[in-house]
From TrEMBL:
Keywords: Cytoplasm, Disulfide bond, Electron transport, Redox-active center, Transport
Sequence similarity: Belongs to the glutaredoxin family.
Name assigned to this protein: Glutaredoxin
Gene name, Swiss-Prot/TrEMBL: grxC
Organism: Azoarcus taiwanensis
Cellular component terms per the entry's GO annotation: cytoplasm
Length: 82
């Protein structure tokens, strides 16, 4: 997950993933490493955080993650069955 230290949406997204049993969320802090913002933007076409990847799948931001959960698709994505 691409994130910053003061992003409430990053915190919400990480909390959901932890509740879903994800043992550790790898965070790439673009506020500490500005070059990573360029990498994030080239991968996603977006400037905002969080930008969440599950494996190689780009989920999008916090709202996208919660939408997947509401649609019942997040669990299968996390288990590698999507």
């Amino acid at each position: 997950m691409y994130a910053t230290a003061v992003c409430p949406y990053c915190v919400r997204a990480e909390q959901l993933l932890l509740r879903k049993g994800v043992s550790g969320v790898e965070k790439i802090r673009i506020d500490l490493d500005p070059e990573q913002r360029d990498v994030m933007m080239s991968l996603t076409g977006r400037r905002t955080v969080p930008q969440i990847f599950i494996g190689n799948y780009h989920v999008g931001g916090c709202d996208d993650l919660f939408a997947l959960d509401r649609e019942g698709k997040l669990d299968s994505l996390l288990s590698g069955q999507a």
